[in-house]
Fold this sequence. Notes:
- By secondary structure, the chain is α/β, with parallel strands linked by helices.
- The chain has a single domain, classed as NAD(P)-binding Rossmann-like Domain (Rossmann fold, 3-Layer(aba) Sandwich), CATH 3.40.50.720.
- The chain is built from ten helices and nine strands.
Amino acid sequence: MDISNMTGKAALVTGAASGIGRETALALARRGADLAICDINQKALTEVAKEIEATGRKVIQRRVDVAKAEDMAAFAEAVHAEVAAVDVLVNNAGVGLGGGFLHTGLEDWNWVVGINLWGVVYGCHYFLPPMVERGSGHVVNIASAAGLVATEALCAYSTTKFAVVGLSESLRDELANYGIGVTAVCPGIINTPITQSSRMVGPMATDDNRAEIVSAYQRRNYGPERVAANILKAIEKNRAVAPVSPEAWWMYYMKRFFPGSMGRLVHTLSARERRRRGL
Ligand SMILES: NC(=O)c1ccc[n+]([C@@H]2O[C@H](COP(=O)([O-])OP(=O)(O)OC[C@H]3O[C@@H](n4cnc5c(N)ncnc54)[C@H](O)[C@@H]3O)[C@@H](O)[C@H]2O)c1
């Protein structure tokens, strides 16, 4: 898709009130696209809608819980009352969950799978059919480097992100028949508020641990606007998988070409972490 001038095109971004979603919505607006945005955080979403309007683009905004089919159905109805089909669909809304399997309760599983996986399934279910009918467009699913390499520390989160990578790969195969591209984005360590809102379970659920993670992400200081710029590039080049930061690229290549070494390295680092926590 030519993204140099998106005037007359419509893009949809879920979880657009913050971080990667916000920056992606703004980047698409700056290229000329009109936007449909949703988030569970209505107040912050309205601020982003104002920023989009300031670029001269039209915006539809709605409070939506992406884990609820009825919310996504109502959002789709509102969007399709304005445009026959969106051109770019960005399934971005997501949450973090730190902890191993033995400490992750079923309510935590429901929460993270509901948002990170069902949210993407609902996005595709409600917005893809009109795109298919028209025969053009691009789907971007925000996965994670944790969707390429799984560790003890992110068991449920990784499970959802591996699923998003798999769903994207399957969709890409199917939708190529209808002129629609699909990209799974694997950002890496990105400095966004996700570190504050993520749930932590088991030994990871301490104030010190959260402070450590927030500080590590801040020190890494890789901003969400750089992810947004990579998302635009990935749409233009119709990339299947788009690792973003250098560590995401490193994990991508290591897993592909040296899976055994990667597995051993992950286990060594996890064992060191366990010792550090006295487990
Ligand atoms: N920040 C990172 O290091 C990183 C790395 C890899 C992948 N990701 C993924 O990128 C995506 C965006 O994360 P971010 O880092 O920008 O985080 P963020 O917290 O800044 O933004 C996430 C947005 O999703 C919204 N959201 C949460 N639950 C929702 C729900 N049920 N319905 C609708 N909206 C909901 C939040 O309100 C927030 O505005 C997520 O899918 C995340 O897993 C982030």
